[in-house]
Design goal:
This protein has helices at about 1-20, 65-75, and strands at about 25, 35, 45, 80-85, 90, 95-105, 115-120, 120, 130-135, 140-150, 155-160, 160-165. It is mainly beta. The chain has two domains: about 1-45, no CATH class; about 75-165, Immunoglobulins (Immunoglobulin-like, Sandwich). Strands 5, 7, 8, 10, 11 and 12 form a six-stranded mixed sheet that branches. Strands 2-1-3 form a three-stranded antiparallel sheet, with no helix packed on it.
Length: about 180
C-alpha cells in the first residue's frame, strides 16, 4: 500500500512541476522547429501552454455493496445435483462434447462460481454458469463432479458426482478372418 501511495505522490509532484515548467520553441537556420525546456540564448521563443485537462474519479454509487454484505444475507444452498448427464450414462466416443448441467436451489448467487471436475481434476477456472462443456473426453469410465465456491474459493456445496462411460464404437469381423480387397 505504501508503494502505491509513493507512486501517486511522485506522479502528482511530476504533474505539478510539468505545469510550472516553461516550454520554448526554437527555429534553426534550416527552418526546423524544436521544443525544449532549456532555451537557447539566441532565438528561443517562450510558449504559453493551455491548462492540462484534469478529471476526478466518479464517486462510488450507493448501490455498490461489498460482496461480504451479500454473503452475510445469503442463507446457503439447499440442494445441488448434476441433472445432465445421468449417472452411468453411456456416451459414444464419436460424441465429442459432453454438456454438464447443474441444478441448484436457490439459483447461483452473485459472486459465487461453479467448478467442474473430471476424475477429481478441475476443468479450467471456476465459472459463473451452471452448464459447462467438457471436450475430448477419452474412452472409459469418468467421474464428473461439480462444486459451488465463493469469491475466496471456499466450497459452499458439492453435488453428488456422476459416472459416465465413454464407449468407442467399432465394427468387428464376425468370421474371424481378415478381410482382403479383391484383386
Amino acid at each position: 500500500m505504501s508503494g502505491q501511495l509513493t507512486a501517486v505522490v511522485i506522479l502528482w509532484v511530476a504533474a505539478a512541476m510539468s505545469q510550472a515548467a516553461e516550454v520554448y520553441k526554437i527555429v534553426d537556420a534550416d527552418g526546423n522547429i524544436t521544443y525544449t525546456d532549456q532555451p537557447d540564448a539566441s532565438a528561443a521563443e517562450r510558449l504559453n501552454l493551455p491548462q492540462i485537462n484534469q478529471t476526478t474519479a466518479p464517486a462510488k454509487r450507493a448501490e455498490d455493496k461489498p460482496a461480504t454484505e451479500t454473503e452475510a444475507n445469503f442463507a446457503g444452498y439447499s440442494s445441488a445435483r448434476i441433472s445432465s448427464p445421468e449417472d452411468q450414462a453411456v456416451i459414444l466416443h464419436n460424441q465429442v462434447n459432453i454438456i454438464v448441467q447443474l441444478a441448484l436451489e436457490p439459483q447461483l448467487q452473485p459472486g459465487h462460481l461453479v467448478q467442474f471436475s473430471v476424475n477429481g481434476v478441475a476443468q479450467g477456472l471456476p465459472v459463473s454458469a451452471t452448464a459447462y462443456q467438457l471436450d475430448n473426453i477419452e474412452r472409459g469410465s469418468h467421474r464428473i463432479g461439480v462444486a459451488v465456491v465463493d469469491g475466496r474459493n471456499r466450497t459452499l456445496i458439492v453435488a453428488k458426482p456422476v459416472i459416465v462411460n465413454v464407449k468407442r464404437h467399432f465394427k468387428r469381423n464376425q468370421s474371424g478372418f481378415q478381410l482382403r480387397p479383391k484383386k
